[in-house]
Amino acid sequence: MAGEFTHLDERGLPRMVDVGGKAETLREAVARGRVTTTPEVVRAIREGTTRKGEVLAVAQVAGIMAAKRTAEWIPLCHPLPLTGVEMKFELDETAGTVEIEAAVRTRARTGVEMEALTAVAAAALTVYDMCKSADRAMIIGDIRLERKSGGKSGEFSRGCSPPAGAVS
Questions:
Q1: 6, 57, 90, 130: which has the highest count of C-beta atoms within 10 A?
Q2: Which of 140, 116, 143 is nearest to 129 (CA)?
Q3: Per-residue confidence at 160, pLDDT binned at 50, 70, 90?
Q4: What is the average pLDDT across 145-155?
Q5: CB-based burial of residue 9 (10 Å sphere; 0-12 exposed, 13-18 middle, 19+ buried)?
Q6: How far apart are CA 106 and CA 112, in angstroms?
Q7: Is 129 a catalytic residue?
Q8: What are phi and psi of 149, to 5 degrees?
Q9: In contact, 136 and 47? CB cutoff 8 Å
């Protein structure tokens, strides 16, 4: 089983993969996730009338900061020099959802999937934190990698299009 997972050595113990022999290439990853709440909370986010202020602006900064510090959150993740992080949000009052997307880029020896996923998670947690006084039953979920490019493993795409009406 240890051979199936790159972060395990021949004895099955955790290790940080040595990427020193790999070429630096342009790499990008896009992740998405969702916060499900009430239509009233989504309306307050859109109108900027929540008790804590501009939810999406703070969530955007949280996502960017989290992407930059992913190696501090994920024990075997390599610290990477990110060249770009973009956050997008789509609000659907009818469904009571906040869709979150993070696109992360670097030129490095390893990919930025974890950085994109961490950015989405941090942005979703920030939405929860800023809106919990209005709805403690919010659900954070469906956090997933949508696509990635670059590196030895090549391209991956879940086959979804970008969110319509995305707010950046």
A1: 130
A2: 140
A3: low
A4: 88
A5: exposed
A6: 7
A7: yes
A8: -140, 160
A9: no
Q: CB count, 10 Å around CB of 11?
A: 7
The answer to whether 96 touches 39, Cβ cutoff 8 Å, is yes
C-alpha–C-alpha distance, residues 118 and 1, integer Å: 27
Tokens of 49: 């009338």
Given 9, 18, 92, 129, the catalytic residue: 129
Question: In degrees, to the nearest 5, what angle opens at C-alpha 57 toward C-alphas 56 and 61?
Answer: 110
pTM of the model: 0.87
Confidence check: pLDDT of 80 > 90: yes
pLDDT score for 106? 96
3-state helix, strand, coil in the chain (%, to 5): 30, 30, 40
Region 95-112 average pLDDT:
95
